[in-house]
User: Fold this.
Amino acid sequence: MSDFLTTLRNLVGPAHVMTEGDLSAYERDWRGRLHGKALAVVRPASTDEVAAVVRACAAFGVPIVPQGGNTSLSVGSTPDTSGREVVLSLTRMHAVRGIDQANLTMTVEAGCVLQNVQAAAESAGLLFPLSLAAEGSCTIGGNLGTNAGGTQVLRYGNTRELCLGLEVVTPQGDIWHGLKGLRKDNTGYDLRNLMIGSEGTLGVITAATLKLFPRPAARLTAWAAVPSMEQAVALLSLAQRSLGADLTGFEVMGRFALSLVAKHMPQLRVPFVEQEGVQYAVLLENSDSESEDHARARFEALLEAAFEAGCVLDAVVAENLTQAQQLWHIRESIPLAQAQEGLNIKHDISVPISRIPAFVADTDVLLAREIPGVRLVNFGHLGDGNLHYNVQAPEGGDAAAFLREREDDVNKLVYGAAAKFGGSFSAEHGVGALKVDTLKEYQSPVALAMMRSIKQALDPHNLMNPGRVLGPLP
Amino acid sequence: MSDFLTTLRNLVGPAHVMTEGDLSAYERDWRGRLHGKALAVVRPASTDEVAAVVRACAAFGVPIVPQGGNTSLSVGSTPDTSGREVVLSLTRMHAVRGIDQANLTMTVEAGCVLQNVQAAAESAGLLFPLSLAAEGSCTIGGNLGTNAGGTQVLRYGNTRELCLGLEVVTPQGDIWHGLKGLRKDNTGYDLRNLMIGSEGTLGVITAATLKLFPRPAARLTAWAAVPSMEQAVALLSLAQRSLGADLTGFEVMGRFALSLVAKHMPQLRVPFVEQEGVQYAVLLENSDSESEDHARARFEALLEAAFEAGCVLDAVVAENLTQAQQLWHIRESIPLAQAQEGLNIKHDISVPISRIPAFVADTDVLLAREIPGVRLVNFGHLGDGNLHYNVQAPEGGDAAAFLREREDDVNKLVYGAAAKFGGSFSAEHGVGALKVDTLKEYQSPVALAMMRSIKQALDPHNLMNPGRVLGPLP
Assistant:
């Protein structure tokens, strides 16, 4: 292996082939589930260097783990414990290669941090709408590799829908120059979308051409207290009809999730949480291309109609940006509040929106029967059918023991229920190393067979992020 | 082969295995470029029957040409002249399987005619936005197979963006049940988008779950006369900023294209075409979620600003639906008007919007140098960067001879120019049998190698629409 490391050092410079010291930022996954051991962490500075590194790995038979900000929630971007895998870090490739105003596109390198992509768009007077909790650390390459979701999917789609072109280094170390800024291009198979969401198992994304949008003239936030999940879904339909594409956010939060925020962060002042009959709260965002006054008038009309229809018990429209941020802050504090309450079993499921009320009702009952006193931290992107339906130990119980002893059973129950309602066990977090067995259990065998054929065709020596997503190949 | 035909007759019934009589509706392509000869035309009635037919074809080694409405503009859905290929017609599978109001989705079978898909959505008070010239004949399966574009791409995307789930029969005759109505689902490779746009070469799409949208409260059309392509692009930017997602159509038409409509269809009364300095007209569509009055006020504000900025010389907003239809009718009459003027060499290119003015200026000059007196019928979906940049013989010339003698040279010149400006030779019509060599010339060799690997992995015996898209395989 010393020949191999020498080759790498010659390709990218000795300073960028790291084998010693504390490499835990590269070797440990975001949620601390696995601390792996890399043969080396390699940090190429250009697409040509990435291609050369991949060719060297192919020549020496060394598996590659592509890595961006290493914020995977599914253990998708860290090396295993064998010490045989190279981490290919894209963080030195962080340039914004260009912005095309009239074409509403931007070309960025894979290692660019999402927040910097957003900022570059903003400084051109435009919007890159992808937004998620890890945006200060995650990279656009990782967002593409996992087809990240976030809070703006309702209007703008997942990362997949925000990408027009890719530059990719293949498992053979060739460069596919697919950085097109075209909204229509039917010239063969859709390699772009095949690479997006393949979690580094089919190649290394080195750059992307992304869609940009005009910035809305005003963005307004409202908070509505609703009596049930059925009424939350009814409010969504009403909001879609009345606001059309201007409805850019629709987040739901269960009463218990909000009570944890109220308990652990009393300074946040959660609206209506004590009010009788309030089972859920909905956070709505309206992005208006005209003016704040116009946005406010439309929001008020919507909420009045919703109040009359019985979907909404009480509601408030943020008076200013600070208030809007406070409301979003409550939503974003749920993960922290539940952590303060103790570890819980996290899920990232999706279900057709029409079936969410029945899914929640059924699954709540199943879990309560299985685990008396169980507490459900239910919140998520209702507008996309995506719930983080998290399961917390009974009050006063040992949360660590609960997680250790019950996680498999609880997952089985929740994933089974999601599947029964036509849903998915992974809405936006992907498969990684964590959910390989879950994929095998819940994905269609015909689909799995096609995926394996594609993996073997494009990466016959199984060098790209091996074992992730599809597991060991035959 | 008589065993084979007997097998097919047993599977779908003798009436649905056609080998005699006039089969030209199945054997001749839409534009009459190729009259093939099928071994048989088979019309299964269900997904199970499709799977059984595919298994029979696989067992007997018979190639399959999947076919919907047979409206391909690239000879993608007709058999070759060998008499060895089976046409697998999906037209008996035309059911709307269901509409889910709250989830805004609809599940339809592949053979459902696009207009019927639209109508089913409308009768549920919802919108399926895909719209294109052949909508009365083409099927949704064909739209998906070719990733069709049309006039609403600017707001709603291509067919790809309108599909959430697929049911597909694989080349082995297995059924992939992927009819999910989920907006977020990251559970392995994106087989859906791989199948979409693969033109029947990777499997047979038998059904799809499609996105629906709330119907806009009002749809308003305007017609603007502009002095140049630069100003048409400037008007687009202005309209995107001012109307946001409500801008659902932005079509450009060159002066010569419009003069042909005025000449051959004088009853249509083309606005502003005689006015001095008018080089292009733009048709804008505004879909408003509030009211017609609101839509009109916004359109007027936009056009006033555009007039002041010098993008627009004159403009009219349709007073009512009839006027709007008349304006759209002018746009849609261009293909007919140019046909009446004589055959021409058609293109379906895309270029980044910012580069369209330079592309047109350069290519106009190149063509005029090559063919003195050449006439350019330039029109298309400017909002998507998609031009039908068609080349007409010099006035009084022999159009048929022109097409015969000059098509290859002209294509080479136009495709080369599109490539030089970062564009594509096929924006929305696909590759089919017609553009196999063009794909080889202009698609990246690295991408082509990946596509061939995928084809061989999924269809190792090369039975699905062989030769189309990628050409003969090694």
Remarks:
- Chain A has four domains: 2-89, 101-214, 218-335, 342-420.
- The longest strand of chain A covers residues 218-226.
